[in-house]
Amino acid sequence: MSVDPFGPGWSHGVDRVRAQQLLRGFDRACRLAPEIGRATLREILADNAGTEFGRTHHFDALQRDPAAWRRAVPLLRHDDLAPAIDRMARGEPNVLVAERVDFFARTSGSTGTGNLIPTPPKHQATFTRYYAGIIPAVPTLGVPGGDEPHPGLALIGAGGQHRTPAGIPVGSASTGGLRRVRRFAELLWTSPWPVFEVDDISSQWYLHALFALRERSTRFLWGVFAPHLLEWVRMLEVWQEDLVRDLADGRIGRELVLDPVQRAAIAARLRPDPTRAREVAAAFACGDAAYVRRVWPRLRYAMAVITGGFAAYLPRLRLALGDLPIYTSCYSASEAIIGLNLEIDRPERYVLTPGTAHFEFIPLGAATGEQPETVGVEALEVGAHYEVVLTNRGGLYRYRLRDVVRVEGWHERAPVLSFAWRQGTVLDLVGEHSTEVHLLAAVEQASARLVGRADALVDFTVHGDSEAAPPRYVVYVELEGQVDAGALARAVELELGEQNPLFVDYRRGDRIGPPAVRLLPTGSFRALAQWRLARANGVSAVQLKPARRVLDVEMLRWLDAQASCSTAPGVTDRK
User: How confident is the model at residue 194 (pLDDT cuts 50, 70, 90)?
Assistant: First the structure.
């Protein structure tokens, strides 16, 4: 499916008529989802038949017999393709794709170090079509006032790029897409383009805030993940005096980390606005958490991922945003856009996006095998879990994404998926299969019950201690409120049993020990994010996802050091 996101009437995204056209087009594609999937595969095979990978795997012949695809090409992981991708990063052409690769996306590395993903123009174009057209169409039609002609805040950036040995830019997937719509940035968003190019994330976020505050009619707030939007909202309060001063004076402070060219370009966009500054100061002066809605009285919605591991941040985000709709727009990765959310108030329902890649699915029961059989879209069963396999326009062929999804239903002939977990984040010490969803619900509910506040949990991560006898979970928790670690551990155990009956079975047989809780001091997870960023190779702050499972020995040592510094009561593990 090909759409023009910048058609007639396009201004701050898509107007109502254009939104209707785009979503009708998406529905038509969903009615043809299996056929579009096969056509996408034929297109990819034809485009790349002359590449080294295409010749080795006989893409010419497979175009005439797509059914042979699963027999001819093995399932692959990133490690299998990494040598070829490294050659592409050094500038070698025609290895995995025929198109010139002018950008590499760096994955966020949710279970370890991020990977390089080749992003040639055809692959990037699928992101542009959705992010600049189809995705904004949903709140345009689905939110009251969503079609008003006002820009919104985009808490994203195009700075911080690295380069491969051949000089090819490397950044987050959003960085590549953002640069493709550069000339439209100031129609879509409140910040001028030079702000997006600021490398220092604190300075960039401050400037996003300053320019958004200039626009009383700001229509939406977009932070990619819930914790980033929440942290930015928190920083508004910290920065309020500086923001009001700069708004009134039409200037920017010397403390911002900007090169002279950036500073001059940004300063040229500012004008003194003492009237708006007084209005903003009054909104902050009320002293409660709802200042966001007072600062921007025409705010219609927010966009951020609030599902899966990000659900822990929703209670505190709600304190700031009240009942403002929060739209989780899509299920996306650097490798492809996988699903589109069509329902503003049901965030964990993504309709498979026909044509963004060719999709296959591994039934969960077979996913532990090296080369299990896959099934196509038509064979999916509602209620069943599958690992996602994709073939994209960037040289990833039969690529095991490691994401496990659950089929929730159908939209026309396209499956509606919910994200279940990512392989590598599941704790399975003795066969109990505790998922990220199980643990999040257990820790969140146990914390809320003991502290007496729904937003008590700041964050957590868990270590599978296989050296203990019997093995056990060690949960590192940061709370707003004081509790005893032993009491919290007992509450987590009870809640986890409610979430995962298998855990109860293994506890009853003493094959897994009771969980231990280690309480962390205030600010620990913010510091952990900075520590992880310092160790990450080219991963930006806006890409960083919660580490729900301790990733390595160094992270475990860091957490133990933090826990030993805590003055909260009961930090000692319950044995």
Answer: very high
Give CA 222 to chain center in angstroms.
12
Mean predicted lDDT score pLDDT of the chain = 88
DSSP 35-51: HHHHHHHHHHHHHTTTS
List the strands of the sheet with 220-225, edge to edge. Answer: 153-154, 220-225, 301-305, 326-327
Distance CA 500, CA 243 (A): 47
Distance CA 371, CA 388 (A): 14
- How far is Cα 95 from Cα 336, in angstroms, rounded to an integer? 20
Count the helix, strand and coil residues of the chain and give each as a percent rounded to the nearest 5. 45, 20, 40
pLDDT of residue 309: 74
pLDDT over 90 (residue 289): no
Q: Do 190 and 212 meet the contact criterion of CB atoms below 8 Å apart?
A: yes
List, in order, residues 6 or more apart from 453 with CB less than 8 Å away: 480, 481
Token pair in block for residue 76: 């692959």
pTM of the predicted model, to two decimals? Answer: 0.83
Chain position carrying tokens 């790029």? 161
* CA–CA separation, 315 and 294 (whole Å): 19
Judged by average pLDDT, the poorest of 179-193, 198-212, 293-307, 399-413 is 179-193
For the ranges 12-16, 354-358, 444-448, the lowest mean pLDDT is seen at 12-16
How far apart CA 503 and CA 442 sit, in angstroms, is 12
Torsions phi, psi for 142 (to 5 deg):
-95, -10
Pairing of strands 399-411, 326-327: unpaired
Burial of 560 (0-12, 13-18, 19+ CB in 10 A): middle
Q: In whole angstroms, what is the distance from residue 452 CA to residue 447 CA?
A: 8
Q: Nearest CA to 9 among 21, 25, 24?
A: 21
In terms of DSSP H, where are the helices of 268-341? 274-285, 291-295, 314-321
Distance CA 372, CA 365 (A): 10
DSSP assignments along 169-195, one per residue: EEE-HHHHHHHHTGGGHHHHBSS-HHH
